[in-house]
């Protein structure tokens, strides 16, 4: 082994992606002292993306006081990578865990806009936005309001829309944010998004994700009606229909809001992150890629970290060191994936109780296999 890329996801709730990377790397380096090891802890744009990306490519964390989805002052953070890109997880400012209780009708994304504003003022002009885990169904109006966009009702009064007040939007004024508008136009925004839901309708933001945020059936109908109205106002304002862009309904319609107000591009989360980490460059002369995650199942092959790595690795072998695998061995063989389970020979609960110990044992088994190839 001359070069190995180690690029695992986190074992959610048990080990961070960096911890998993370090454990596997230590076993590989012990067995192959001269091997070049590329440590690339990774994520797919969801939970842990900021930490994973910063530990892969370097950077610093920055804190800001922002409004939570339910209107309280909270501390949130984002990263600025060494290459200058701002890395953000919407869930850290406007996520469902950042509020007290569930507020499906009144929560908004204002705090997320405040984080973007803070990064713009620090000089960031490239943004990677992860939008999973939202508490909101406001179409990104709160974010836009924090960035100087004015929403007016029938009487011409300014207000910050939430899910229950989207129907009150009469006009959207995009001219009042002056220099800030210039900064946004000079910036590049990439949204890490792995869903393709439209803005409204039976597969839209309200019907698919509203119940997870606490909305009852009647509230879901109100939210969906509001998103339909909001879409019509966006069409009138920008002369563009954002409603059926794949991912428009992500994060309660924040996907559509990011495209409309930031000029963002919606991309696969893992695709965006692998690009940021120069995976294609590193893979050209690699002998092996080792990835991993807590639970390997059929969803791992659908837009997650593993699917992106398999796609980008080409002819380079890919191994997975996971907590537990729910996949049939024949299925894995057809995918060309070699798998080592931390829970081999024990229960999943035992491996979770001592995750470092059993992950290291699985890594040792993988290293022994390396000697045979």
Keywords:
2 domains, 5-stranded parallel β-sheet, 16 strands, Glycerate kinase, domain 2, single chain, 6-stranded mixed β-sheet, 373 residues, alpha/beta, Rossmann fold, 15 helices
Description of the molecule:
The model has no long low-confidence stretch (mean pLDDT 95). The chain has helices at 17-31, 49-57, 91-94, 110-121, 141-146, 178-185, 205-209, 217-238, 250-262, 269-276, 279-283, 305-313, 329-335, 348-353, 355-370; strands at residues 3-6, 36-39, 59-67, 73-81, 86-89, 126-130, 150-152, 158-159, 171-173, 188-192, 265-267, 288-291, 295-296, 318-322, 324-325, 337-341. It is elongated, with a radius of gyration of 22 Å. The chain is of the alpha/beta class and 373 residues long. The chain has 15 helices and 16 strands. β4 (73-81) and β5 (86-89) form a beta hairpin. 51% of the residues are buried. The strands form four sheets. A six-stranded mixed β-sheet has the order 3-4-5-6-10-11, sandwiched between helices. A five-stranded parallel β-sheet has the order 2-1-12-14-16, sandwiched between helices. The protein folds into two domains: 3-42 and 286-370, Glycerate kinase, domain 1 (Rossmann fold), CATH 3.40.50; 49-269, Alpha-Beta Complex (Glycerate kinase, domain 2), CATH 3.90.1510.10.
Poorly predicted segments? none
State the shape.
elongated
**Number of separate domains:** 2
Largest sheet, spatial ordering of strands: 3-4-5-6-10-11
- Number of distinct helices: 15
What is the rounded Rg?
22 Å
How many E-type strands?
16
The CATH architecture name of the largest domain reads Alpha-Beta Complex
């Amino acid at each position: 082994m001359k070069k190995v890329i180690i690029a695992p996801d986190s074992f959610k709730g048990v080990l961070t992606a960096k911890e998993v990377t370090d454990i596997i790397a230590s076993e590989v380096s012990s067995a192959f002292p001269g091997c070049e090891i590329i440590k690339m802890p990774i994520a797919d744009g969801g939970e842990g993306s900021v930490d994973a990306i910063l530990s892969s490519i370097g950077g610093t964390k920055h804190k800001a006081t922002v409004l939570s989805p339910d209107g309280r002052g909270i501390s949130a953070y984002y990263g600025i990578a060494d290459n200058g890109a701002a890395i953000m997880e919407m869930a850290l400012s406007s996520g469902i865990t950042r509020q007290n209780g569930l507020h499906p009708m009144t929560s908004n994304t204002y705090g997320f806009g405040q984080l973007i504003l803070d990064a713009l003022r620090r000089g960031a002009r490239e943004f990677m936005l992860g939008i999973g885990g939202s508490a909101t169904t406001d179409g990104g109006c709160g974010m836009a309001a924090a960035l100087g966009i004015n929403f007016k009702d029938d009487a011409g009064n300014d207000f910050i829309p939430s899910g229950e007040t989207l129907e009150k939007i009469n006009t959207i004024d995009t001219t009042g944010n002056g220099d800030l508008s210039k900064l946004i136009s000079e910036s590049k925004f990439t949204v890490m998004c792995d869903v393709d839901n439209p803005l409204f309708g039976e597969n839209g933001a309200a019907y698919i994700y509203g119940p997870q945020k606490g909305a009852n059936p009647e509230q879901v109908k109100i939210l969906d009606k509001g998103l339909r109205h909001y879409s019509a106002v966006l069409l009138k304002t920008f002369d563009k229909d954002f409603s059926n862009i794949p991912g428009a309904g992500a994060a309660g319609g924040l996907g559509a809001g990011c495209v409309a107000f930031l000029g963002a591009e919606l991309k696969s989360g893992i695709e965006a992150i692998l690009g940021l980490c120069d995976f294609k460059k590193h893979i050209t002369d690699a002998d092996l890629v080792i990835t991993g995650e807590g639970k390997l199942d059929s969803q791992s092959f659908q837009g997650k970290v593993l699917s992106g790595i398999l796609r980008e690795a080409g002819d380079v072998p890919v191994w997975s060191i996971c907590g537990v695998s729910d996949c049939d061995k024949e299925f894995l063989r057809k995918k060309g994936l070699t798998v080592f389970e931390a829970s081999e020979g024990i229960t999943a609960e035992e491996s979770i109780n001592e995750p470092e110990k059993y992950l290291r044992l699985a890594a040792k088994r993988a290293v022994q296999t390396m000697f045979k190839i």
